[in-house]
Amino acid sequence: MAENLNENACYGKKFLKKDIKNTAGKCAVILLILSVLTYFLGSLIIRILKIRSSLLGSNSTTGMISGLSNDAYNFWVGYFPCIAADVVAIIACFFIFRKGINNYISFKKEVPSDFIVSGAFASIGVGIISSIIFLIYSIIINSHGIEIPSPDFSIPKETIYLILFFSYTCIIAPVFEEIIFRGYILNNMRKYGDFTAIIVTSIFFSMFHFNLVQLVNPILMGIILAFVAVKSESIVPSIIVHMFNNIMAMITTLISTTNSQNILLIWSSIYYICGVSALLYFLFKYGKELIDICKEKNEVLKVRNKIFYSFTNKWSLMYLVFYLFIILVTMVAKNS
């Protein structure tokens, strides 16, 4: 009897290990499609602009064709490829997992408004903690003479591109990213345990940003967003929280460009006090539920093993290699 139980346990481990690798591999395929297509489209558009520049004439210092502003260039090279790749990735999700978006949008249970509101404001506190952590490791890296490249979050000056910029950052990106990460990836990993799914999804979410500035924040923010999605059984609340987080970040960026120290000081004070207070409130009220999720059952495989197998299949490893390659290239370009 004992031998049969051991054989069944061994078979169970092998099956679960294989299934985790298969599902996580599908998630990695989607992210590879998303990432590679984004960089491919961006590079293709840059190439087209350079060809047109050589034919029509342009300012050699900007590498843009006549009449194409910096704002226009940044949109077509930076944001348009992201939108197009997101759409393709969502279509790929449908064919790979054979599930429609409505499976993740519809509410399966009632969610208190306090949970969504406090979760939204708690995201500010998460951002503050992430900034402190980034400050610490950036100081350490900079002390070795290495500069960390920062993404371009400059605000467009032209009205049309300002509208497009805010539409993408505060509406389109949160919706598309939640569909992909908290919709398809999180929910398809949940069969191995909610905590495993939350951690794996959050790590994938961090890698998706492809820069060291946004290394910690997507992980911590991803945990909050995933917890909101798991508790509500819908991605609509996580979309709201994600939108709110991005809107607050944009407001902060806009205020920082006013050159008014008084306004910046007042806003920063309100921002920090509200953010930290909201995070403490959120953890106090809903922390027990989050802890309960962390107490995942481990009869067959421990959580750390399930997370390990999620990133050791061939597709996840390919995505990891691509991620490290992009990080290395941008670091070398910045410090050369």
Automatic annotation (TrEMBL):
The keyword Protease is annotated on this UniProt entry: yes
Give the record's keywords alphabetically.
Hydrolase, Protease
Query: What's an example GO BP annotation here?
Result: CAAX-box protein maturation
Question: In this record, what's one Pfam family?
Answer: Rce1-like
The name on file for this protein is CAAX amino terminal protease self- immunity
Is Protease found in the keyword set? yes
Query: Matching InterPro entries, A to Z?
Result: CAAX_protease (IPR052710), Rce1/LyrA-like_dom (IPR003675)
Q: Which organism is it from?
A: Clostridium butyricum
CAAX prenyl protease 2/Lysostaphin resistance protein A-like domain location is 162-248
GO molecular function annotations of the record: endopeptidase activity
Give the superkingdom in one word. Answer: Bacteria
